[in-house]
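Q: Convert this sequence to structure tokens.
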Amino acid sequence: MCHQFTDGVTEIPPSLPELLSLADRVLQPGFVGATPPDWIRRRLSEGLASVLLFAPNVRDRQQTAALTAALRAENPEVIVAVDEESGDITRLEAATGSSYPGALALGTVDDERLSEAVARSVGAELRVLSIDLDFAPDADVNSNPDNPVIGTRSFGADPELVSRHVAAWVRGLHSAGVTACVKHFPGHGETAVDSHLDLPVVPFDRVRLAAVALPPFRAAIGAGVRAVMTGHLLLPALDPDRPATVSPRLVTELLREELGFEGMVVSDAVEMQAVRARYGLAGATVRALAAGVDLVCLGNRSGEREVLALREAVADAVTQGVLGQERLEQAAARVAEFGAWRRALAAAHPARPASPGLGLAAARRAVRVRLTGEAVLPLAAAPHLVEFGVPGTVVSGEGVPWGLRPALAALLPGTTHTTLAAGAPLDRETLAAVLAAAASRPLVLAVRDAHRRPTVRQWIAALLAQRPDAVVVELGVPHGDPGGSVFVATHGAARVCGQAAAETLAGRRLAVTP
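A:
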């Protein structure tokens, strides 16, 4: 890219600084650490327009506020983004579990004012930390209950319901002065593959796409959303060769021209295997920009070397005619316009406090209970609790706590427990030990997406064969009834969802310190 002359001096072509500056404005890296590394500071001081925070960047509120202040000290106009969906996907509360239920719980309650209030409260917490772009809400319609990556992140399987609550979430976040970004266009709900791992295929024709997947995005646009995130999804009915993020047919023609979206288009992280395995980081980045994406999200696995290489790759793509300079300038301008709009949005909405207790109240409203025969609640004695572990995912992160044990033990002292590792095969020795531990006391089985986990279903069947009086608590998508005398569905695994379930079993509420 640079030219080497005979006197040993490297001369930079006159257009190169401009192209590299434009590249800075269309890349959104993450980083490792609770403070900005030097390379992020340098890039911000030279014009990097946006960064994305992940759970490892967040220790507590004070540290996070100091982190964002340090970022803005280098570039006051930097857009600081985060995936704070509430519920199972939380960055601010990854160490404790979320104080708010997720989308499925809110969709189950089906009170748009509640969804809007929860989003407003989440927005208030983000704003006090100087985080101004939330990659939420999830606008996917979870039409495939076996979906491995959406599930409780979606408001439900009904496009009309999802549309109403997506619009409510957008209004709620915006009323807190924080910008929303709906995802994952054109809709990740029907997929059977996690795009972090491979390329999902959306098996919709045009008619079904318009009827099922697109309505929530239309509703979000109608509610004033100014950012849309693309998904790394192959939709053969519209483009049989290119995933949505790198498809002009989907980004430019469908989203912009047909749906009329005029705001900023953000890619899902190009580190994800659905595009990286096919194009590489540079190839995915350039193709996404050429397709009409304005801000390319990288993730936090890429460091200074990768970001510098991507800047050069974008500039090279322009000089080689692969990426039009006008398209790059347009993308950078849209990012700048979005930045100006989000500052105006914050100025129009004075900061307000979050709503303590709102999340728990919402989680309580989302609990559903099925009793069989003579089964009754509350439990008559401290139970033995069996919790079935689930494997961590790239999107949720490792180690976010979930389950009933802390709240149930506080409400029913003497509660004992067994934790089975994710995917633990059924074995008779452990089964006998669990049954012995639960002798003469209630047995509670806490599961998460049992319908998608064959070994968990085997455990449940074996335990219920011996203890048909057992209580099953589902903290994921309640697809099907696993049996048991009592079935409790929370519609999410956030900390408040576990607490609401424990209160249901104990018949009283846990005193919460403000």
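The longest strand covers residues 384-388.
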